[in-house]
Fold this sequence. Notes:
Layout: H1 9-16, H2 19-27, H3 43-50, H4 53-61, H5 77-83, H6 87-96, H7 111-116
Helix pairs in contact: 1-3, 3-4, 3-5, 5-6
Amino acid sequence: MPDVPLIHRALVAAREGDLQGLQLLRKKQELLQGLHDDFGATCVHYAARGGHVKVLEFLMNKCSMRANVRSFVGATPAHDAAAMGKLPALVWLLRNTDCTLWDRDKDGATVLHIAAR
Length: 117
């Protein structure tokens, strides 16, 4: 059987929009800011991909996580929300964080380019 990379339960909770699970992990001090997957995606990336605005609010406002953290391909959470068509999450990130439509990934694609695809 091939090796399957393990994913931290905080990333799973963010992906699934499990706010209660994330609150419990924070209470147990298991929700770390530097946590990321093998591709550099953080809890904020995962919440953005899933379109989970309440989770984004929690991660930013209660856990002091940042939205301008980039994955290893240079994508911000706004890139991920745009790529997945999660407009409410994208709008929230653009209005409430330092993410912009003009942020570029390593291929030079802006959030606006990704949203238009």
